[in-house]
Specification:
Blueprint lengths: L1 E2 L23 E4 L1 H4 L4 H13 L9 E3 L27 H9 L3 E7 L22 H11 L3 E5 L10 H17 L6 E4 L10 H8 L6 E3 L17 H11 L11 E3 L11 H13 L4 E3 L8 H7 L2 H7 L8 E5 L3 E8 L2 E8 L5 E6 L11 E5 L5 E5 L1 E6 L4 E8 L8 E3 L2 E3 L7 H4 E5 L3 E3 L9 E3 L5 E3 L3 E6 L2 E6 L8 E3 L5 E3 L5 E7 L2 E8 L27 E3 L11 E5 L7 E7 L8 E2 L7 E4 L8 E10 L2 E10 L6 E3 L11 E5 L7 E7 L8 E2 L7 E4 L8 E10 L2 E10 L8 E2 L2 E2 L1
Parallel strand pairs: 2-3, 2-9, 3-4, 4-5, 5-6, 6-7, 7-8
Antiparallel strand pairs: 1-36, 10-11, 11-12, 12-17, 13-16, 14-15, 14-17, 18-22, 19-20, 20-21, 22-23, 24-25, 26-27, 28-29, 30-31, 31-34, 32-33, 32-35, 35-36, 37-38, 38-41, 39-40, 39-42, 42-43, 44-45
């Protein structure tokens, strides 16, 4: 592979074109988390409470059904039916009632044939996996739906790998939604089914093409009326821990969703403040999962806090950066359109005294700022520290407006690695990169503070640069050179510009330890990093790299699926294939936003095929070149191509191909046809065909070569004999 870009920068994620039905994180209420099996009356009461409480006026506009609203059987016409016990008048009056209140109506279905609870989904059997997508979408449209949650409990993966099966399903539903000609918010559950396995990052890379929000991991457990005092605090922390490192997949119109807000229900008031503050710092959807007819005044004041809501709904739509973390405290900063939000989480069981300096947040030491406490509304001008007392499990949140002399904030914070085997073990799950050459449990030590420079350097607290020194990562004095320049990919890899290797951690007993450089693997956890969110302009754009097929490899058959990783900031991709470097006499795609292209009808003669993968950044483009060897199909040795048969009986012979398991030959009066003859698959190198036409017409032959599960072929053309003649073979008569 030839790299055309040597010096790169760290940059913000960018998807290709996609729907933007809702540029800010959606806000509303869902029936699932509190009721699970909701009724028409529950929906009506909570929709009315959104309005009467003043929450609707603050942005909570969606009223969403979730699982178990439907009957166990479709009707005779194949339509979904509302459960008559829960919705005796059907679903249309419910939707009309929601709309009459000035609110928006959301529905739920599954991409597979059944929901998680066993109710009918929109999918079908493997032979027709999208059986009811069009019909159900049209039915929901007849109710005037504004939002759809598309779950994925029973997606068929027959004949496909997991990510492809889910992507094809969600792309199919996206197509149905697009056909409506009006905006509908599309909530995708696909990533949650791959949480903390390598495919998770692959799924996260494509969901933004279709929907506005996606569930990233495990659910917030529903309210259990039989055990109303069971705390959901551990679940709030866990959902925050797995969601916060995923900011690179998020931008306006595309949001990571860590699940429902449950303030006041199985959470204390400090814990309720924490969930609402953290979700707002993450620009997460604010979908309430409580019974609004019973919400306490304190909980209502939390979810109705306009200043905190404004942090969530900020037009930049950014995920907060983790500045530092220790066993009890997280410090987060989030850029806003008109300043910054800062949050400090006390996850310990005792009160905590905090003091956060200007420099810790990435500002010069002399910087002064106006600070507003968003819970109390109290404002303090001209301060250079944040000082607060936090209750156990509480979170303080402030808006920070720097004074003019402060200048731009540096991109400073912790660099995290998440460890899949340590789920819910908070300190072990998200660990910190240390400038001491290792990954460790976060302690908020100065060695865990990093600053990203626009040119691609990663600088520690002492001003030393992370350097790939002969394949050994270490801190050295910052200087010009490729060994200190790093590319950050959407998957989360840090790739060094000098050798193309990935910054990695050695793994001992399932835990990351010392740093080393390794060839980049497929979403290996010890090579995936979450950086302090970087929103600068790249100094030089980076070309996407093919992930399959393997460069310099031999095609094993056709079609060939080319796949590549997303590049942060890219707007489109295209791929061209030719018999010369940069040529496109074999194939040329247009510009598009996806990450794969399937190509058929490539040569079968073992020649070199050149591929050029373009990455577009608006009107400019960069590319990488690759070379492959074409698959080899067996070639006829007799009769000679284009020959005229002299008999109605002809013996066809061909040479062997290394790796072939079988061959077959077909003859017809059209290209690829077999109306004249079709052999089965067999291991020999000849076939004798009788009773061919003797009218001088054109006869087409296709010789197949089977290479395991792949097949390639060569086509030939002959002229039929004009009389029965003698049995012939090129080179003589037998």
């Amino acid at each position: 592979m030839k790299r055309h870009i040597a010096i790169v920068a760290l940059a913000v994620c960018g998807y290709g074109p996609g729907p933007r039905a809702h540029a800010q994180p959606p806000m509303g209420w869902s029936a699932w988390s509190h009721f699970r099996v909701a009724t028409a009356q529950n929906v009506e009461d909570n929709a009315s409470a959104l309005v009467s409480s003043g929450l609707a006026a603050k942005g909570y506009r969606f009223v969403n059904l979730d699982g178990s609203w439907m009957s166990s059987e479709r009707d005779a016409a194949g339509n979904l039916q509302a459960d008559p016990a829960k919705f005796p008048l059907g679903m249309l009056p419910v939707a009309q009632g929601v709309h009459a209140l000035g609110l928006k109506f959301g529905v739920f279905t599954d991409a597979g044939p059944t929901t998680c609870a066993g109710w009918p989904g929109s999918g079908g059997p493997p032979s027709d996996p999208y059986e009811y997508y069009a019909q159900d979408t049209a039915q929901f449209d007849s109710w005037g739906f504004d939002y759809i949650k598309f779950d994925a409990c029973s997606v068929s993966t027959v004949g496909q790998n997991g990510s492809d099966a889910y992507q094809n399903a969600f792309a199919a539903e996206y197509k149905e939604l697009q056909s409506l000609g009006r905006p509908v918010v599309f909530s995708e559950s696909a990533p949650a089914y791959f949480n903390n396995i390598p495919t998770w990052y692959e799924v996260l890379s494509w969901v933004g093409q279709y929907g506005q929000l996606w569930r990233t991991g495990t659910d917030m457990p529903p309210f259990d009326p039989a055990n109303p005092n069971v705390s959901r605090w551990p679940n709030v922390l866990w959902n925050y821990f797995y969601n916060q490192p995923l900011g690179r997949f998020q931008k306006p119109g595309n949001f990571d969703d860590p699940d429902f807000i449950v303030a006041g229900t199985e959470l204390t008031i400090p814990e309720s403040r924490t969930q609402f503050a953290l979700w707002s710092m993450m620009s997460a959807p604010l979908i309430l999962g409580v019974d609004l007819t019973e919400i306490t005044p304190d909980a209502l004041a939390i979810v109705g806090n306009s200043q905190v809501i404004a942090v969530d709904q900020d037009p930049l739509g950014r995920m907060a950066t983790l500045i530092e973390r220790n066993a009890n405290m997280d410090v987060l900063v989030k850029p806003l359109q008109d300043g910054y939000a800062v949050a400090v989480l006390n996850r310990g069981d005792s009160p905590l005294s905090v003091s956060i300096s200007t420099t810790a947040l990435g500002f010069p030491a002399q910087c002064l700022f106006t600070l507003q406490d968003l819970w109390s509304g109290v404002e303090a001008p001209s301060v250079n520290t944040i000082d607060a007392q936090l209750e156990a499990h509480d979170t303080g949140i402030w808006k920070l407006t720097p004074s003019a002399p402060c200048g731009a904030r540096t991109q400073t914070g912790a660099i995290l690695m998440t460890v899949p085997s340590q789920q819910r073990v908070f300190d072990n799950y998200a660990q910190c990169l240390s400038s001491l050459g290792k990954v460790e449990v976060c302690t908020a030590d100065a060695s865990e503070a990093w600053t990203l420079r626009t040119g691609g350097q990663i600088v520690d607290h002492e001003g030393q640069c992370l350097d790939d020194a002969g394949g050994n990562p270490m801190q050295t004095s910052c200087a010009a050179g490729l060994t200190q320049l790093w590319t950050y990919t959407e998957a989360g890899n840090l790739i060094n510009s000098s050798d193309g290797l990935c910054l990695s951690a050695a793994v001992v007993n399932g835990l990351p330890t010392t740093l080393e450089m390794q060839p980049c693997g497929y979403n290996a956890f010890n090579q995936i990093w979450s950086l302090p969110n970087y929103y600068g302009i790249p100094a030089t754009n980076t070309a996407a790299a093919l992930t399959s097929p393997v460069p310099n490899g031999v095609f094993s058959g056709y079609p060939v699926k080319f796949t590549w990783g997303s590049v942060i900031g890219a707007t489109d991709y295209s791929i061209r294939l030719g018999t010369a470097v940069g040529g496109y006499d074999l194939y040329a795609s247009g510009k598009f936003g996806g990450n794969s292209a399937t190509v058929s009808n490539l040569p079968t003669n073992g020649e070199t095929i050149h591929a050029r993968l373009y990455t577009y950044f608006g009107t400019s483009a960069v590319y990488n070149d690759y070379a492959f060897t074409a698959a080899t199909a067996a070639a006829l040795t007799s009769p000679a191509p284009n020959a005229t048969f002299t008999s109605s009986q002809v013996k066809f012979t061909w040479g062997s191909v290394t790796g072939a398991t079988d061959y077959s030959i077909r003859l017809g009066t059209a290209v690829g046809g077999y109306d004249l003859y079709a052999s089965g698959e067999f291991g020999g190198n000849s076939a004798t065909v009788s009773n061919l036409p003797v009218n001088g017409e054109t006869i087409y032959a296709r010789l197949y070569t089977y290479l395991g599960s792949n097949t390639v072929y060569n086509d030939y053309t002959f002229k039929a004999a004009t009389s029965a003649g003698t049995w012939v073979q090129t080179g003589g008569v037998e």
